[in-house]
Design a protein that fits this description.
Blueprint (H helix, E strand, L loop, with lengths): L7 E7 L3 H12 L6 E8 L5 H7 L5 E6 L5 H11 L4 E4 L5 E2 L3 H11 L3 E13 L5 E6 L5 H7 L12 E3 H6 L12 H9 L4 E14 L9 H21 L5 H11 L8 H21 L4 H23 L1 H9 L1 H5 L3 H11 L2 H11 L3
Amino acid sequence: MPSSEPLVTVGMAVYNGAEFLTKSLRSIVAGSYPNIELLVVDDGSTDKSIDIVKRVDDSRIRIIHNKLNNGLVRTRQQIMQEARGTYLAWLDQDDVAYPNRIARQVALLEANQAVGACGSWTIHRVHDASGKESLRKSSAPGRHEEIHASMPFVNPISFNTATMRVSAFLQNDLSFREKYGNTLDYDLWSRAADVMELRNIQEYLGEYRIHSSQTSRGPSSNRMLEAAWSVQREVLERNLGLQLDSDFGHIHSRAMLTPQLLTSETDAVEAGNWIRFLSELNKDVGTYQQKAFDNALSRQWVYCLLHVSRAIGFSKGVKLAAASRSITGFRNHNLLYGVRAALPYQVTAMVQKLMSGG
């Protein structure tokens, strides 16, 4: 090991991850940044995971084996407690770090002592039912103001490319909470964003694998939605003083978490009115930078338009989009931001051309 105290701990929680584990491990040990330890906590696996880890010949790997399965939240807490590095970079057992990921994030954190954690853009590697793979790019806001303003609506920090300054989280008594299950990182970042600066490097520095056997798929996805809704409800209460009753909670949940459930023009207008209400509320409270907050809301509005248009038809969807300003109160520059943030590049270029009369 280059140093008895590595600057970076790469933390990997493992539980029955044999299928993709080798690629994940090798993506770290083959990276360009040498001063690391790869801390693997095997949480009582019953497959060959532990043997796979041991077969990777690298002195920087440190293995902790739990005899019993403690669950993801406790295992990540264990990694935070055991980490020796100044920085803790996370990678799950089925994800991949690109060669320069750690080096790029260390450079940012070393140059900006106020930054408590940083992520990056990521690539989603999606496995369909037949086993065929496809790649989808996922971008995220880069500046702290934009990240903070996005927290009431989405999780803007991708866990598979997240690196934290351990001392910043310890000093603020920030750790994972059991009740949030597989949305534990969203909860953590949402609280961290209130007390420290967060950043995203606007480069693709890793891959997040989406496949049928991961714990965030299948029946557990509904539990994740419920937990994400709990995070958002807490964020809105904490930062905007907004206590959501059942009616408002239903509107917010559909507009922000499940816009695919919007099926009529009435649904879309209701969501747009809610978005306008949130924008006006922040003007009074002043928690979030207003431009960043309106941009985040505009992105959510575009998601709403996209989903409702599938139900009501393209032509009606276009008319609804044309009425965006009267519904949400946003000007064209906000809406263009929403289009750029929500749509693939090719579609964004087409929409911008249409809006400019080209």
